[in-house]
Design brief:
The chain is 28% helix and 22% strand. The protein has helices at residues 38-46, 51-57, 71-80, 85-89, 121-129, 145-158, 214-217, 264-282, 284-287, 302-320, 328-337, 423-431, 445-457; strands at residues 4-6, 64-67, 100-106, 109-112, 134-138, 162-169, 179-180, 184-191, 194-199, 210-211, 222-226, 231-234, 239-243, 251-258, 363-366, 372-378, 389-395, 414-419, 435-436, 461-463.
Length: 464
């Protein structure tokens, strides 16, 4: 996205750092974003800052404001979501709480003004104009195609779920009290102007949402106003609040967020359980019983803690010395709940295999690599004590866009499972641009053909 970049101003409406001009991106007519690849999409979003510079200097460290002074960029952002879009969306059965919240910041606290049941546009206009309330629209990518297009590419880039909320606030009002979030935040200003105040984190890289009292956070570390087309980034844990000054038109912005529960701690929690599951089969020290009455003690003994420490160091050595796939639970959760690939039309190419059927003499290549993951885990169809380890492939090709980020229990995983003996062959397919079926590392030709036929049926490979 064009034009100038700068860290946000400290206690003023302008930011330090040089202004730069961004090169035009090739995302199509009148589109300032480049959708050619996930990396190019993110690069055009934060241009002229390079992604390498962004992750070195800003990501998880400090806020960044990207100023846009380009009518084309402003027009593109305004089209992402307008107040007027709510009128047609209300005709699609929106519900208070699930799809829309109406709220206002009153004396440092969030006051929710929701009605019951279905949302009606005339009531929302009344809330906005007369009650000076903010309208929060949850996960608009479920309905707005261009946000779907942006967010599914960002999910490919980050390897993490990317959600969004739209906030529409009238002049002279503030929707939310000072608070911090547990996500990395990208703000796109769509309509009007919004005045922001950011404060140093009280909990750096926070793992949960929390409201902060004004007397606890002190003076703003950064203060500025966003206009249509401007972009703001700040790390999770950054305390912030935003308002619309009196005398202006309403403000609309979209908050795009990512990296919830994607820390090293989360990865460790997910990885260690599988590591122990495998190691306990091979290491008799891990199968030895704990001391008698250990569970009855309040704190345990120093000897027990030392023993656990030694076992953890053994597991660490095992982890570093293995080529095992990590964080299988996180991988499955991500792919199961993420957006499907953006498409125009009925998306038949995501559910119906096309082209030639793969045979033993075929050369094949993986497709939709950014939308699939490879992992291992216990056979979910076995309940006895001798559970076999299987290879699982999960993909998002058949995910339901309307359920994205809604915490819906109807979400189901899609994919395939294979015996562990197929792992090397699958790694060949994942690791090569193309590969001949007969060169796959499997014992029999029948296994090779069955493997590629299964992947082809799931639309994950094509014959070249």
């Amino acid at each position: 996205m064009p034009k100038a970049a700068e860290p946000p101003g400290r206690g003023s409406d302008q930011g330090p750092g040089p202004c730069k001009r961004a090169k035009a991106a090739s995302g199509g007519p009148n589109c300032p974003l480049n959708f050619a690849s996930p990396r190019l999409l993110f690069g055009s979003l934060i241009a002229p800052v390079e992604p390498e510079t962004f992750f070195r200097e800003f990501w998880e460290k400090q806020p960044l404001v990207l100023r846009r002074d380009d009518p084309a960029v402003a027009a593109y952002c305004q089209a992402l979501f307008r107040l007027s879009d709510l009128k047609s969306l209300c005709g699609r059965g929106l519900l208070y709480g699930r799809d829309v919240n109406v709220c206002r910041c009153v004396k440092g606290k969030k006051k929710v003004l929701n009605k019951a049941g279905r949302v009606h546009f005339l009531q929302l206009r009344k809330d906005l104009d007369q009650r000076r309330a903010t309208i929060q629209f949850h996960q608009p990518q479920r309905f707005k195609d261009e946000l779907w297009r942006i967010q599914e590419k960002l999910e490919c880039y980050f390897g993490s779920l990317v959600g969004s909320n739209v906030y529409i606030t009238p002049a002279g009002s503030q929707g939310l009290p000072p608070h911090y979030d547990d996500v990395e935040v990208f703000i796109l200003q769509l309509e009007g102007q919004k005045h922001w105040r950011l404060y140093h984190p009280t909990v750096p890289l926070a793992r949960e949402y929390s409201v902060e009292a004004e007397e606890r956070i002190g003076r703003p570390a950064y203060e500025f106003t966003l206009k249509p087309g401007d972009v703001l980034y700040f790390p999770r844990g950054t305390v912030h609040q935003a308002d619309v000054p009196p005398g202006l038109a309403h403000s609309t912005h979209v908050t795009i967020s990512t990296y919830q529960n994607s820390s090293w701690g989360d990865c460790l929690l997910d990885t260690v359980s599988g590591l122990v599951f495998d190691a306990v089969k091979e290491d008799v020290a891990l199968r030895a019983g704990i001391p008698r009455q250990l569970l009855l003690q309040v704190e345990g003994t120093a000897a027990a803690r030392r023993r656990l420490g030694r076992l953890l160091r053994t597991l660490a050595d095992r982890l570093e010395g293995t080529g095992a796939l990590l964080a299988g639970g996180m991988k499955k959760d991500f792919v199961t709940h993420r957006l499907p690939p953006y498409h125009v039309g009925d998306g038949a190419e995501l559910s119906t295999p096309g082209g030639r059927v793969p045979r033993l003499d075929s050369t094949v290549r993986l497709q939709f690599k950014d939308y699939s993951v490879l992992t291992v885990g216990p056979d979910q169809n076995q309940s006895d004590e001798t559970q076999e380890t299987m290879v699982y492939i999960y993909h998002s090709l058949k995910n339901r866009r309307e359920l994205h980020m809604m915490g819906n229990e109807e979400t189901e995983s899609h994919g395939l499972r294979f015996p562990l003996s197929h792992m090397d062959a699958l790694k060949q397919i994942w690791g090569h641009s193309t590969i001949c079926v007969k060169d796959l590392k499997l014992t029999t030709d029948e296994e090779k053909e069955n493997l590629v036929l299964s992947l082809w049926t799931e639309c994950l490979i094509q014959v070249v």
